[in-house]
Amino acid sequence: AYLTVSIEPLPPVVVGDAVTLKCNFKTDGKMREIVWYRVTDGGTIKQKIFTFDAMFSTNFSQMENYRKREDLVYQSTVRLPEVRISDNGPYECHVGIYDRATREKVVLASGNVFLNVMAPPTSISVLAADTPAPFSRYQAQNFTLVCVVSGGKPAPLVYFKRDGEPIEATPLPEPPAGAGSWAPRNLLHRDLDDTKVPKSLAADGEAGAGHPFATAEPPRGLAAERDSVTEAIPETVVSREFPRWVHVAEPIYYFRHTHAPVSDGTVEARATLTWTLNPQIDNEALFSCEVKHPALSMPMQSEVTLVAPKGPKITMTPTRARVGDTVRILVQGFQNEVFPEPLFTWTRVGSRLLDGSAEHDGKELVLERVPAELNGSMYRCTAQNPLGSTDTHTRLIVFGTLHDLPILVSSSPGSLPSHRGFRLVLAFTLTVILELT
What we know:
By secondary structure, the protein is mainly beta. It has helices spanning about 200-205, 280, 420-435; strands at about 5, 15, 20-25, 30-40, 45-55, 70-80, 90-100, 105-115, 115-120, 125-130, 140-150, 155-160, 165, 170, 255-260, 265-275, 285-290, 300-305, 315, 320, 325-335, 345-350, 360, 365, 380-385, 390-395, 400. The protein has three domains: about 5-120, Sandwich (Immunoglobulin-like), CATH 2.60.40; about 120-170 and about 250-305, Sandwich (Immunoglobulin-like); about 315-400, Immunoglobulin-like (Sandwich), CATH 2.60.40.10. The longest helix is centred in the last third of the chain and has 18 residues, at about 420-435. The relative contact order is 0.12.
């Protein structure tokens, strides 16, 4: 007797699809059994998923007649109604027949197929690296967008767009194996603030005389791979408060794409886009991260707009603070949508904070058990991100009884309070009246 087994190959399937595994075999012997296996752990483990035993089959006679001399062709199918990522891997079909001569000897043959299960990405997000970060008016800064794509199998193709147009970026090599989180290298080391150019250098640049304009430190790093364009600007032309940024005509972008396997069989892809930020042209620029994947019918995307903070909204609780209360001053939001996340810094105008520190970082400032001396004190909140900075102020009014104030008043019957004490009482009373009105 003879036996040949083959399994029809399968194209990649998507999670949730119904899949049918087909095992074709040809023989002139008597059927013994058919067994399907799912192979795991690199072939070391075989798990039975289907068994057909001809000895106990009531419809066996309808499948074949072993007395016939001609070839008989059969097909065994296994259907997976909704495939999962865990179903990915090799499968084997084992067929056994009785030999025609002895009827006791069993002839075995098998075939195998690999089921490739794809999964579309389940989430995509764009965030800024190293946030919150301060704004620098006088020094160029590197800025990095990170696009994180999770849940896909295989790894997706990730790319960036600016204002709807694809970005042509210089690829960066992958970090070495075993390295931690990648921190973007300094792409530009020059100080691009024209107001800091020494007058001697500015004069040389104006005079010409065959001496090119020079900087204190030559450009290094990745940005130095292309010619830099600078302009000699006299110090009197540019305001120190709002200096003119000098950049190359078009931003130079650098791109890196990495992926890491996840325990559930999917891949987490990370794409980073790094360039030298120019707040004048990058503020309100729309960046999008798009993903192409064979399991997606159309690209998947996430968008962010780079925006500097504007018009912080501050609340104070309680609204009528009394001596001894705990006062919380909180930034609730802005007049616009801000990206990336701002850095908040609190200071007290003209003095230190209640705990003695010069400043406090965070979205909320807490003043424990406020004393009467804080009445009328002004607090400044500076909100900044790499695109810009804004300040807002709020004044603390502390209500309290007269004995909370350091006033010297005579207690003798019929006597009048001292001039100093009378002025303090009058000032406190007027403050309360004004607040109530």
